[in-house]
Design goal:
By secondary structure, the chain is of the alpha/beta class. The protein is built from 15 helices and 15 strands. A nine-stranded mixed beta sheet has the order 13-12-11-7-10-9-8-14-15. Strands 3-2-1-4-5-6 form a six-stranded parallel beta sheet, sandwiched between helices. Helix 6 packs parallel to helix 7, helix 7 packs antiparallel against helix 14 and helix 10 packs across helix 14.
Length: 502
């Protein structure tokens, strides 16, 4: 509750912040915090794809001092751009050699190595920006939560929607009582581009010289190399990734977790699945996650529709909204006088509202973004695309993508609705939010102490893809009380001698 109050009302405490930032206090300088006027020395672990993007975000205001990537081809753009900087293939070697020169790190690597790399740098007193999802398994998310408390460094999970205006407005609408008590929520994601439903593992190959395969595997058990895994297909494999849960549900379920103040669930159950595999996530599935009463909020069931398409026979139909487009366009709050988005919070420049003369959602056309285009959606009345629908006793609310848009259903109700007063503090941007925390400012909006409980129940959801039946969860003991099979997936397998410890 302390971290929640700090997040909600931290701006009210601004008068207690020393003029130079918390980093101006000697005791906090000793913990690795810098005054606001000093630049952080930032190292990047993972330089391709998202790694390159968050590296660029950090470089706008801070010093980049070292790079690390096991795949020289994947990271070649950033490596060439910073060719004068030290380059390492192993995160541990970089920490040994450059530790004294590093204040903070950005980490964007496959899900299964998130916890190992983040923990090593937290233990060394380095601030950590870690791309979503926080970790692959529930045990690892709990470990990072404990590490954040123990090592007292500034942390941030890269779920950028937490910094968006619409994400926070959605919470304020729900807390205002506008849609009443919420006992049911539906979250959906589009089909991904990673493999699903594989019946056998890819054949063994020789690893290219540009890739250190042993370093890529990190502390995971050794296995033969296949070019099929890299640079992206790893996401669909249970041993390496979290499928669309880590890819998109971490975003689209964000407003749900925040607005409903979700903690640990009591049970997880797979209610539908198509084309199962023992190696990868299935083609699609629906998972039910039940949460108990939280303060004045009633128990709630969250249904996660993985890879939802309008043509699916079990697609979720929103009650009474047969003729409505369910998910709002991004940045639709401009019509109500709110910002288009938070600069630096999302990928690329902020996107504006759809033009008044744009074709209807789903019609396509040049320059018009269609959520789930070519993948069976969208269609009036059904939930497809990346978003969420809150079913309340007095109304329905929907959010889209990372929480980049919000509205009430039906559209006529939203048209006449006046937004509630702002309660939450606003973000300067997801990267800047973390940088400010690194310099002793407010706790970042997705600090591990805030994001780890969220990441934990998402990681539990991934287990339900593999184990049928209702799985009862004991959060205190971190185990399922009725499934030995499900308990096998709570904690990862490590190479001998490479286990993680606080």
């Amino acid at each position: 509750m302390t971290t929640r109050r700090y997040f909600f009302f931290g701006s009210l405490l601004a008068g207690a912040v020393p003029t130079g930032g918390y980093g101006s206090v000697p005791s906090l300088r000793a913990l690795g915090y810098k005054p606001f006027y000093d630049k952080l020395n930032v190292a990047a672990i993972g330089c391709g794809g998202r790694g390159n993007e968050i590296l660029n975000d950090a470089a706008r205001t801070e010093n980049i001092v070292a790079l690390c990537d096991v795949d020289l081809k994947r990271g070649e753009g950033a490596i060439k751009r910073y060719e004068k900087l030290p380059l390492y293939r192993d995160y541990r070697t970089m920490l040994d050699k450059e530790g004294k020169n590093i204040d903070a790190v950005t980490i964007a690597i496959p899900d299964f190595m998130h916890a190992a790399v983040a923990l090593a740098y937290m233990q060394a007193g380095k601030h950590v920006y870690l791309e979503k999802p926080l970790a692959r398994t529930p045990w690892e998310t709990r470990l990072l939560l404990d590490a954040a408390v123990k090592y007292k460094v500034a942390t941030q999970m890269g779920n950028q929607g937490y910094s968006h205006e619409s994400h926070r407005v959605a919470a304020e609408i729900l807390w205002s009582g506008e849609i009443g008590e919420v006992t049911e929520v539906h979250v959906s994601t589009t089909p991904g581009t990673h493999p699903t439903g594989l019946k056998e593992l890819p054949p063994e190959e020789s690893a290219p010289e540009t890739l250190d395969w042993s370093a890529w595997l990190g502390n995971a058990p050794m296995r033969p190399f296949s070019s099929y895994y890299v640079p992206y297909n790893w996401r669909g494999f249970y041993d390496f990734g979290t499928g669309q849960i880590g890819n998109w549900a971490t975003h689209s379920a964000g407003p749900v977790h925040h607005a409903l103040q979700l903690g640990a669930p009591t049970s997880i159950e797979r209610v539908a699945v198509t084309n199962e595999s023992k190696y990868t996530f299935p083609d699609r599935a629906t998972i039910r996650v039940d949460f108990p009463k939280r303060g004045g909020m009633p128990p709630v069931s969250v249904f996660y529709h993985d890879s939802a398409r309008a043509t699916d026979p079990d697609v979720y139909r929103v009650p009474g909204m047969d003729n409505e487009v369910i998910l709002p366009p991004p940045n639709n709050l401009t019509a109500k006088g709110r910002p288009m988005g938070t600069p630096g919070a999302m990928y690329g420049p902020p996107r504006g509202p759809r033009p008044a003369n744009a074709p209807p959602m789903g019609a396509g056309g040049p320059g018009v973004k269609v959520f789930g285009a070519g993948r069976g959606g969208p269609a009036p009345g059904v939930l497809t695309g990346n978003g969420a629908v809150f079913i309340g006793s007095k109304g329905i609310m929907a959010t889209v993508e990372r929480g980049e848009g919000v509205w009430l259903l039906p559209a006529a109700r939203w048209a006449e609705y006046k937004l509630p007063p702002q309660l939450l503090t606003r973000s300067p941007g997801h990267m800047l939010d973390w940088i400010r925390a690194c310099k002793g400012g407010e706790q970042s909006c997705s600090d591990f102490r805030i994001s780890a409980p969220y990441a934990e129940w998402l990681a539990l959801t991934a287990i339900a893809f593999r184990v049928p039946g209702k799985l009862n969860w004991d959060s205190k003991l971190m185990r399922f009380t009725n499934s030995a099979e499900a308990n096998k997936y709570v904690k990862p397998a490590f190479r001998p001698g490479m286990e993680l410890k606080l």
